[in-house]
Specification:
Shape: elongated
Largest sheet: 5 strands, antiparallel
Oligomer: single chain
Strand content: 25-35%
CATH topology of the largest domain: Nuclear Transport Factor 2, Chain: A
CATH architecture of the largest domain: Roll
Number of helices: 8
Number of strands: 9
Number of domains: 3
Helix content: 40-55%
Radius of gyration: 27 Å
Length: about 270
């Protein structure tokens, strides 16, 4: 009896240690999925500091300092371009912040990194795009672009539940219905203890297939022929300046389970 009790305790300790390790891994993954973690994974601290410095020098109109790290073609265009954008950047107050970075790395060619920075306050805002091109540590300034805004551009695509009116409420209801069917079908599967391959039925019931997607900012929608949604619905936003995309799939397996249950197959 003592041996059995000790074995049970050891098993609980082993399970507890595994759970702690799993939670630690999940926390690390979540930390890596943050916006800054994503930026750090795609660019070095030196590159980030360089582009932030470029944005400040661009606002100050320091052509010579910017030209030092620029490609020859851009260097010739800088004086004219800086004179054009300085009026846009002069009223923008505060420091610039790095929002996101995109990387294009063709096989056998130089790497191109596009950094998106934002600065401003009140009704004077600007997004500055800084493009670096090169390989390894020899990255050069390859492009600049400034876009002024009258409000915070990162909030233009915020999720506002009343933004889409009746269609938005209908869409959210369809997403909720899809999620409810997936969960209800899973419960019914595990109430049928005699059912064979319950794990396969459960796996199929937890997903929606194909379906519909809605751009919450513009109201445009589309049929998703190739789509798999966990619990039948999902909401995604690909970056600070991207719109929310709300989609729901058709829970085919869940519908089969529910129909068979209420037809009396249980």
């Amino acid at each position: 009896m003592l041996h059995f009790g000790q074995a049970a305790i050891n098993q609980k300790l082993w399970v507890g240690a595994r759970v702690k390790k799993l939670l630690a891994i999940i926390c690390l993954c979540l930390a890596a999925c943050t916006q800054q973690g994503w930026i750090d994974s795609l660019s070095t601290q030196q590159e980030q500091a360089f582009v932030l410095d470029i944005a400040e020098r661009l606002r100050a109109g320091q052509i010579d300092q910017i030209s030092q790290g620029a490609e020859p073609e851009l260097r010739r265009q800088l004086p004219t371009y800086i004179k054009q954008v300085m009026p846009m950047l002069e009223p923008v107050r505060g420091t610039f912040g790095l929002q996101t970075v995109n990387v294009f790395n063709p096989s056998g060619g130089p790497t191109t990194k596009t950094f998106i920075l934002q600065g401003g306050s009140n009704d004077h805002w600007a997004i500055v795009s800084v493009v670096l091109r090169g390989s390894g540590k020899s990255m050069q300034l390859a492009g600049l672009n400034v876009t002024p805004f009258r409000s915070d551009p990162s909030k233009l695509d915020d999720f506002e539940i009343r933004k889409r009116g009746f269609m938005g409420y209908l869409w959210l209801a369809a997403m909720l219905a899809s999620i409810s069917m997936c969960l209800w079908a899973t419960i019914l599967i595990w109430r049928r203890r005699w059912l064979r391959r319950r794990w396969l039925w459960t796996l199929g019931s937890l997903f929606g297939f194909a379906g519909f997607g809605l751009n919450w900012s513009t109201g445009a929608w589309a049929i998703l022929f190739v789509n798999v949604s966990f619990l039948g619905a999902q909401a995604t936003k690909m970056g600070p300046y991207a719109p929310w995309i709300l989609s729901f799939g058709i829970p085919v397996v869940a519908l089969i389970v529910i129909v068979r249950w209420y037809r009396g197959d249980h």
